[in-house]
């Protein structure tokens, strides 16, 4: 869960001493370098002409809550500036995908790539070819409390993250300096940020080790297991006193 979810529990009248927060996990084993399939990655790069391109990826659910029209609008602004070397790689499935594909075609967007849902084992390969990732949500307060898998997948992969939700994911990105926040109501902010970053690939790659370290120290299964064990032991101790 997230701190925002814990606040929701508190608001229902549950006292602080009965609430513990264990966040989502970064699967470091899955996102180890040896799980990157270089042959598959080369095929993806060739298929979508990603050589010498700056790639921003969104891998996961494509539901209404994700607000992915935001990416199309940012892409459109870049194309109006004749930017051709920034590609949006959107991977997955969901309720809004058919409409997004249709709108992309109507807007004649050349730099949006839609890839079908992939197996979990292939996510490390797709994430590895991205220069930066984005975790997108509609600008609704309730969504700021979420704990999205795609955010923690990016952490485990050592990828910088753009978030557009002013919640705890924004707090993580800013606290550890591992990404950027843009306003979900303003796609021009995303377009401007990508223009700024597209010539800083080396800097973004240089964050990989630091991001993976944060994933391991703050969001690993080992850390969560230790915290859960402590909670259970404390509960058992309290029951023993009664």
TrEMBL record:
Alphabetic keyword roster: Coiled coil, Transferase
MF GO annotations: glycosyltransferase activity
Xref: Pfam families: Glycos_transf_1
Transferase found in the keyword field: yes
Coiled coil: 190-217
Domain Glycosyl transferase family intervals: 42-210
UniProt cross-references to PANTHER family, sorted A to Z: GLYCOSYLTRANSFERASE WBBK-RELATED
Protein name, UniProt field: Group 1 glycosyl transferase
Taxon lineage: Bacteria, Bacillati, Bacillota, Bacilli, Bacillales
